[in-house]
Amino acid sequence: MLLDHDAQSALARVISEQEARTDAEMVTVLARQADDYRYVTVMWAALLSLLVPALLLFLPVWLTPLEALLLQWGVLLALAVLFRLKPIQFRLVPRRLQQTRAAGLARQSFLQQGLHRTKGATGVLIFVSEAEHYVEILADQGIAQHVPDSEWQSMVDAFIAKLKNGEVAEGFQECVAACGDKLANHVPATEQKNELPNHLVIL
């Protein structure tokens, strides 16, 4: 569930409060889903439609070659539409592919939001892809040399649990606060700056 205006404003305030404690620049990005996976659902529909001629051999019906072909096309189209329904679609798309697409979008967002151009390389991205239940925290070199990637994992796990319960706003706020605590310890504020916007970026 994407955040409404009030939730986005509250998140922006939390980011501003946490950034005042650290030299890091935090950016939050929320994507509905990382890919439409159309090629996957069409592939499944095509594979299953290939079974139509075999099934006709066991049914007490007689169709001309043209009728059988039209039936096969009809099955293909019907399944292609049916498999676009989200509850079905995400059962057909392999979990590894979902994670790969979401991870790729996270890295693309890191560059698009200019997190690699901050003073001291102190950019931190909190990326969420809602449909995939995917959360990742990406930190630039200025942060990574103080905080190893493994230390973000507990925050990611807690956020994923919130995401699965539909508590996106709460997940973001708690994650930003937890990141703020860690960053304030490792990269405390030495100056007041705000190089990047604090509002939630929705893709």
UniProtKB/TrEMBL annotation:
UniProt KW Membrane keyword: yes
Protein known as: TPM domain-containing protein
Keywords tagged on the record: Membrane, Transmembrane, Transmembrane helix
Record-annotated membrane-spanning stretches: 42-63, 69-85
Domain TPM: 96-180
Pfam families: TPM_phosphatase (PF04536)
Domain of life of the native organism: Bacteria
Entries under InterPro entries matching the protein: TPM_dom
Gene3D superfamilies assigned: 3.10.310.50
